[in-house]
């Protein structure tokens, strides 16, 4: 959320004025007094970026969470909870992780509300890919490259005008958010509660919708990887279903010849019965990409995730320093 000029406050509703005049300054003041736990502590960096990049209703909730902390340790726990329950799961590297619980008592009540609605674990559905392919015309939505496995549907004349490539159906909110074992239901509820808290517009999107085509698009394999790693994001232009392509530590490279010259994508459908990618889901993805860019944490998080995945293989002699891993997120 960007800074506003004094004149712009005249057009703000009372709740927004309260946010800018009271809650945000108080949150930043609290962060200024934070005492780092070590020289790799990213708490202030992460929370500052979130205060800037979350949607306004998410910023309000984060300000309230910061206000509710009583010391630096609790503030670290809030940041660590957001990392483990929002950023890490959105990377979608594996099945549902076990996130750190929020230190705030009210969060448990909210998790319990989500827990009672946790659906059955998701399974890979062939229809998800088929629906996305049909809606997107069997083409990557960015480059227009045609699915090489669908070439038989085209005439020789049509083939001569297409660039064939291997494409994939990419989830916006990763499939892993709906993939968990029965004993991970509470972890799944903790993750969804955090997503709803900091991205309230996602509240209507439930785990059972993970394979809905509104949560997907067709991308080249390399672009799918870049998108899932937050090196590629779709930023709204203000025009419905039209997005600017934002690239972080990523360049079109060999795809430059098929890359849109204006760096924009407009989603369209060849089947009106299949919904286009959900703008709210893309907004959440883009916000997290901006947070990672603003903090310089992309590479750091990649390393941290690899270390965290190794926690399940802790040294039998107890020599693994789990605390230090968590301190570095």
Describe the structure.
Helices cover 44% and strands 9% of the residues. It is elongated, with a radius of gyration of 21 Å. It has 329 residues and is mainly alpha-helical.
User: Which oligomeric state applies?
Assistant: single chain
- Number of DSSP strand runs: 7
Give the C-alpha Rg.
Answer: 21 Å
Principal-axis shape equals elongated
Strand order in the sheet with the most strands: 5-6-7
* C-alpha termini separation: 24 Å
Helical residues, percent: 40-55%
One letter per element, helices H and strands E, the order comes to: HHHHHHEHEEHEHEEEHHH
β content, as a range?
5-15%
Q: Helix/strand-derived class?
A: mainly alpha
The stretches of 5 or more residues where confidence is low (pLDDT under 50) are: 4-12, 312-329
Summed over residues and divided by their number, the pLDDT gives a mean of 82
Instruction: Sketch the major β-sheet.
Output: 3 strands, antiparallel
State the helix count.
12
């Amino acid at each position: 959320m960007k800074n506003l000029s004094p004149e712009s406050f005249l057009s703000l509703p009372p709740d927004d004025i309260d946010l800018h005049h009271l809650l945000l300054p108080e949150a930043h003041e609290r962060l200024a007094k934070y005492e780092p736990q070590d020289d790799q502590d990213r708490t202030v960096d992460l929370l500052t970026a979130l205060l800037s990049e979350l949607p306004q209703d998410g910023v309000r909730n984060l300000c309230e969470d910061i206000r509710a902390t009583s010391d630096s340790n609790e503030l670290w726990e809030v940041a660590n909870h957001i990392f483990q329950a929002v950023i890490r799961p959105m990377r979608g590297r594996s099945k549902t992780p076990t996130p750190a619980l929020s230190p705030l008592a009210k969060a448990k009540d909210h998790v319990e509300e989500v827990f009672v609605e946790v659906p059955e674990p998701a399974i890979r559905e062939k229809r998800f890919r088929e629906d996305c392919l049909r809606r997107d015309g069997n083409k990557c939505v960015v480059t227009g490259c045609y699915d090489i496995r669908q070439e038989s549907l085209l005439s020789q004349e049509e083939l001569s005008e297409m660039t064939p490539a291997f494409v994939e159906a990419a989830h916006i909110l990763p499939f892993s958010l709906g993939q968990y074992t029965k004993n991970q239901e509470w972890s799944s509820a903790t993750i969804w509660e955090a997503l709803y808290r900091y991205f309230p517009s996602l509240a209507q999107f439930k785990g059972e919708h993970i394979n809905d085509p509104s949560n997907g698009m067709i991308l080249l394999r390399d672009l799918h990887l870049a998108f899932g790693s937050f090196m590629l994001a779709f930023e709204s232009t203000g025009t419905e279903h039209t997005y600017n392509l934002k690239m972080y530590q990523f360049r079109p490279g060999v795809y430059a010849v098929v890359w849109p010259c204006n760096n924009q994508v407009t989603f369209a459908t060849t089947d009106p019965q299949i919904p286009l990618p959900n703008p709210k889901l893309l907004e959440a993805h883009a916000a997290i990409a901006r947070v990672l860019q603003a903090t310089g944490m992309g590479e750091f998080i990649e390393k941290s995730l690899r270390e965290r995945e190794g926690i399940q293989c802790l040294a039998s002699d107890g020599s693994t320093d789990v605390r230090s891993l968590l301190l570095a997120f």
